Amino acid sequence: MDIIFLHDFKAKTLIGVYPWERIVPQTIQLDLEIALPSSRACQTDDIHDALDYALIVDRINNILTNKHFSLLEALAEHIAQTILSEFHAPWVKVSVAKLGIIRGVKKLGVRIERGQRRG
Ligand SMILES: Nc1nc2c(c(=O)[nH]1)N=C([C@H](O)[C@@H](O)CO)CN2
């Protein structure tokens, strides 16, 4: 299985369960692993055969700007389902973390894995 990874992708968004978190944007860190539907690009060296990671970054930035979630879990699920449905990836692993939100904890978050449903 060939994979595109995006590590240490930091961006600001409104997220959280508390009222102040609906007003003050927070920096989150995303780490993604995205399985590729095909390895054709390895042979052809053609971007048209590749899953363009720049488009994935653009799409995630769009989500972070336009959608606001209470829970990291819900954001991770939305990103995972977007990548599966819009980029036809067979499988994706999404980690979403907040940085320094709780005293004594440098980074905390959730990690989910999702695949295409059969049938
Ligand atoms: N499982 C989760 N627990 C909590 C979340 C979350 O997203 N998932 N979020 C919060 C608050 O928004 C937090 O960021 C502030 O302490 C608390 N617990």
UniProtKB/TrEMBL annotation:
Q: Which SUPFAM superfamilies match?
A: Tetrahydrobiopterin biosynthesis enzymes-like
- Which Pfam families does the record cross-reference, listed alphabetically? FolB
One GO molecular-function entry: dihydroneopterin aldolase activity
Q: In which pathway does it act?
A: Cofactor biosynthesis; tetrahydrofolate biosynthesis; 2-amino-4-hydroxy-6-hydroxymethyl-7,8-dihydropteridine diphosphate from 7,8-dihydroneopterin triphosphate: step 3/4
GTP-binding as a keyword of this entry, yes or no, is no
Q: Which GO terms describe its biological process?
A: folic acid biosynthetic process
Q: Which UniProt keywords apply?
A: Folate biosynthesis, Isomerase, Lyase
Catalytic activity, reaction form: 7,8-dihydroneopterin = 7,8-dihydromonapterin; 7,8-dihydroneopterin = 6-hydroxymethyl-7,8-dihydropterin + glycolaldehyde
Protein name as annotated: Dihydroneopterin aldolase
